[in-house]
Amino acid sequence: MRADKTESIKNSSATNGKVVLMFPGQGSQYIGMGKEFFLKNNEFNKYFDISSSILGENILDVINDNEGRGYLLDNTRYSQIAVYTLSCAMNDHLIKRGVIHKEKVKYVIGHSLGDYSAIYCCGGYDFKEGAQLVVFRGKLMAGFTSGDNSGLKKEMMMAAVIGSDINTILSVLEKYKNSVFVANYNDYSQIVISGFKDEVLSAGDEIKNLGAKKIILLKVSIASHCPLMKEASIRLAEYLEKNLKNLSDLKFQFFSTTEVKKIDGGSIKETLIKQLISPVRWVESIEKIIGDDSNAEIKVFIEIGPQKVLSGLVKRILSRMGREDITIFNTDTPEDIERIANEA
User: Fold this and answer.
1) SS3 at position 216
2) C-alpha distance from residue 92 to each of 89, 118, 122, 226 (Å)
3) How many structural domains does the chain have?
4) What is the CATH number of the domain that holds 46?
């Protein structure tokens, strides 16, 4: 929630405008996430019962660090299904309570893994089907390795570059063709690079020497959203063809942040397959959504899921666009959810 908006929302036009729902991806997970939410709304514990049954392990034990198992939460196998499950439960809570009015929803978007929660929100598949898909994706990516031109398997890595412009980053990556790629365009000063570990570290050092404020190594052992995931995308395609033959008609407009456009139900599988090897173009997506909003209908963004990562990114993008009239909410705590109910 943007602090400067808290006092004035009730008197603003936010309550009359359209809403964009956004779902976070891997990296938003943290120990204890959603604990207060489930204490207040224990009927939603069934979502984790379903996901745990599919995974074959108790996910809440990992999230709540029971018996010291919290260290597993940053493992892709656990983080993906944990974020998906919490996001979907929160979404259904907001819909059930009438906090989100369906007629006000303009777009639903996700960041990477968040696409899977977004598609569930849009009604593309039921919760269990989505959970099975996310568990498969998490296991696939957790165990995935890729090789260089010599055919040798190499460790992979992702790193966030803070405080450098895209042209500087691209100029450095010219030296690392086929080994390091831009994976996420998150905001104007936060770009994620992805590739083979040694080369990512070397490229990161060069970018830092050219003025970047910092390089943050992400807690993942994969190189998502780049061509190194080609084999994984093929396996995902095989899974989708076998296990998700028919997608339901969408009740909301799903906007892909890798393709930067609205996607209908018939194209979702192709979008998910291409997503693994395509960069997340978050900045461009938010700019397009707002730029195409010719009647200035959109007045609210709501981040559904753990943390406030996407809220921060959108705040900076909208500020650059001069759209201070748009209010941003998140659902990280029960208090944040109540704020939406009272003010949105």
Assistant:
1) strand
2) 5, 12, 11, 32
3) 2
4) 3.40.366.10
Mark whether 7 and 94 lie in a shared domain.
Answer: yes
Q: How far, in Å, CA of 300 to CA of 39, rounded?
A: 27
Please report the pLDDT score of residue 248 as a whole number.
Answer: 75
- Please tell me the distance from the alpha carbon of residue 253 to that of residue 269, in angstroms, as a whole number: 15
- Per the DSSP assignment, residues forming a β-bridge with 159 are 193, 217
**CB-based contacts of 210-215 (< 8 A; 24+ apart in sequence):** 210/164, 210/168, 210/172, 211/163, 211/164, 211/168, 212/161, 212/162, 212/163, 212/164, 212/168, 213/162, 213/163, 213/164, 214/162, 214/163, 215/159, 215/160, 215/161, 215/162
Which of the residues in the chain have pLDDT under 50?
Answer: 1-13, 150
In eight-state DSSP terms, residue 294 is T
User: What is the spatial distance between Cα 344 and Cα 331, in angstroms, rounded to a whole number?
Assistant: 13
Q: Could you tell me if 205 and 124 lie in one domain?
A: no
Q: Report helix, strand or coil for 81.
A: helix
Of 175, 197, 220, the position where a domain reaches its end is: 220
Segment 120-163, tens digit of pLDDT: 999 999 999 999 999 999 999 987 765 555 455 788 999 999 99
- Between CA 74 and CA 191 the distance in angstroms is 21
Q: What confidence score (pLDDT) does residue 246 get? A: 77
Rounded to whole angstroms, the Cα distance separating 132 from 80 reads: 11
Q: Which residue range forms the structural domain that includes residue 87?
A: 3-143+229-343
Report the DSSP pairing between strands 298-303 and 327-330: parallel
d(CA 284, CA 111): 13
Residues known to be catalytic: 112, 225
The CATH number for 169's domain is 3.30.70.250
Nearest-CA neighbor of 100 among 113, 91, 109, 88? 91
Which pLDDT value is given to residue 343?
86
